[in-house]
Amino acid sequence: MRTQITGKQIDIGEALQSHVRQGLETAVSKYAGRPTDGSVTFSKSAHEFICEATVHLSTGLTAQAKAKSTEIYAAFDGCCEKMEKQLRRYKRRLKDHYKEKVEPVELLGASTYILASEQDDADSEPESLQPVIVAEMETQIPSLSVGEAVMHMELAGAPVLVFRNEKKDGLNVVYRRDDGNIGWIDPRN
Which processes are annotated in GO (biological process) (predicted)? Predict the structure, then answer.
């Protein structure tokens, strides 16, 4: 597994890097058979160190974890425990579902736009009906089943996920509802 370890305004020494590589490899290899790459970022906020880790698996899943502590090693250990717990829960749900998949998840390219929000009064009329685009980026839309899409959404901690349905070959959306349940939008073609 390729691991990128970076520090935001923090010097990351060789001892910490070897500890991170060994700890992350151990945690991920227990529950995920084929990790492709991972990234660990350390930063500091006041007196606390923050560790954020992201691991991409060959099945298309992306696991993310974040932890804080007053010591940098403790922050990484907490983050590693959260990642391990997350992967353990999802492996239990998978029940060897991905062992049949030989190829990684197929991804479809798409554009993502960030639109400027209106800070004016809700009663005032906008000057034009065209929204102001703040940023335009490329994103990937995975080809998944509905169950896999829910797992991807929960692993990423995202409120919504757009995906291409494997069975119907159309775009679908899963999202977290206000009542805590998962909603699924499946438009008819």
Answer: negative regulation of translational elongation
pTM above 0.70, yes or no: no
- Domain identity same for 75 and 114: no
169: left (phi over 0), alpha (psi -120 to 50) or beta: left
> What parts of the chain have a pLDDT lower than 50?
96
- Domain total in the chain: 2
pLDDT of residue 119: 57
Q: Do both 50 and 111 map to the same domain?
A: no
Residues 180 and 151 in one domain: yes
